[in-house]
Amino acid sequence: MDAVDYPTAFNPRGDGYQSPAGSSSGSAAALAAYDWLNCALGTDTSGRGRRPAMANGVWQFRPFHDSISLSVLCKTYAKFDTHCVFARSLNILERVITSWIPPPPIALSMSQSRSYRLIYSEDYMSEADTDQMKIIDAFVKNAEDMLAATVTQFSIRDSWKQSHPPDTCDDIEEYLDDVIRKTYYHEFYHSTDDLRKLYSGKHQGRPPYVIPFVQRRWAQGATVSTAQHEEGTRRLIVYRTWLHEQLLGDNNIETFMLLPVANAKPVYRDEVLPPLRSNPPWINSLFHQS
Question: Which of 19, 165, 266, 277 places its Cα 20 to 30 Å from the Cα of 10?
Fold first, then answer.
């Protein structure tokens, strides 16, 4: 991981030199390292809470967007930014969640006749290797037996081709081409306009020194026009609405979707990772958040 003013947090797992992953890595690494720490808070926009949880071997909960006030959060992409919480124990995690998120006005009853469905995304499973898939398959089988659930395999690419919304092409890769740059990177860049202006004004016109990861995103976001941003946002909303209807359209069924965060393998803290992912945008977990 890149770092400038402070060293990257040390991940205590494995050989001690694994990457802690993501911008909430300090919270996850601290929780993994110190047994006197029960929980830690972080933020999650595009996986920067989920990846540290995976890398540091702790539980993480990302609440539904806007279920907790975001008024004091430093935003990078307001449509996806939210808080998250880490814990080593599910019991602790549950206690934090129930005290953190206000209960609904009317308590929801758990009917014995409630139906459950597990969505098994074929598109995402290409991320996992053979050993990881064995663990995922075992987990799905256990969940299926416990909930008496129906397991449904789902291909985003194929489903879009068969039932894409009106006035859209049938190729989802073409429809969402460059949407990440036009939406997320654009707002990521402009969320720090004031920082660049203030810093430059106090340092003889010099821009702030930032890590290569931020430099790349700023450079891409700066090239997006207002019209491009609006069109990218419109397409993202169309896709989100379609996906929600495909997966969660039946209110009589409690639906869970299983998504691996990444391929579970060693990633060293000094390893230089590719600047851009090769996956198409509809595979990127950024576009499967609420």
Answer: 277
pTM of the predicted structure, to 2 decimals:
0.86
Which pLDDT band, with edges at 50, 70 and 90, does 231 fall under? very high
CA distances from 203 to 120, 207, 208, 211 (A): 52, 8, 9, 18
Pairing relation of β-strands 115-121 and 150-154?
Answer: parallel
CA–CA distance, 128 with 150 (Å, rounded to integer): 22
Same domain? 119 vs 161: yes
Say yes or no: 191 and 273 in one domain.
yes
Please indicate, yes or no, whether residues 38 and 121 belong to a single structural domain of this protein.
Answer: no
Helix (H) or strand (E) holding 56: helix 50-56
Contact by Cβ (8 Å): 56, 10: no
Q: Is there a contact between 119 and 159 (Cβ–Cβ < 8 Å)?
A: no
Cα 277 to the chain's mean position, in Å? 14
Q: For residue 244, give both structure tokens.
A: 């929600």
